[in-house]
Amino acid sequence: MTQYGFFFDQSRCTACHACAVACKSWNLLDPGPVKWARVFEWETGTFPNLKINTLFAPCYHCENPICVDAANGAMYKEEKYGAVLIDPAKSTSPDLRAAWDACPYGCIVFDSDAPNAMASKCTMCIDRLEQGLLPACVTACPMRALDFGLLSDLQNKYGTNRDLDELPSSSVTKPAVVFKPTDTPKQYVPYDVSKALALLSKRGSLPPFFSDPSDVTTVPPGVVTRNKLLLKPKGIQELMDTTRHDEG
Fold this sequence. Notes:
Helices cover 24% and strands 16% of the residues.
């Protein structure tokens, strides 16, 4: 079977959501939880080792899509591009909830939390591929963090890495994607962390902003709400909370 796939350069992604907006626009998806291209952003670490993580998460159209087996006939893998698709005639099948459970990436989305909710997902933009065009999400990325093509070509060009920190192991489903992880942070201007914290605490004639450096370097639970990747939210509200851009 021919297999096409995506390339995602995490080091270039700014979580601008242009890919998600383009996906919505091209596929005429209503505002709300039906997001075929999800963008996740979460924060890890504290000063001076703070990191903002991003993830482009459409369907990765796995070579071994365990969701298809769980869907009991409501999904299939087509042969021309290797896309994993939902049978439109069975989009309200309860078996698609089981398929969502099976998918390690939570790529199937529902329009509500109702048992008979309409299910849908990324189609790899097959309609565009048939016109010789790239998927809408790929063409929209202003940072050129995305690419698309034959998986073998992408692997020859970018390598064979299918895993990122906090993502499930690729060993079972073999997602049709190549990842370039965020570059390891480098300190270009050396400085003394303890002195920097002492300066940050001062506010002139006002009381110090903090008296103990651990007030800055240790963040209590609950202060940072997006502190981990949540690929499989429990419901519509949690999906919106984890994939909504802070600026709208």
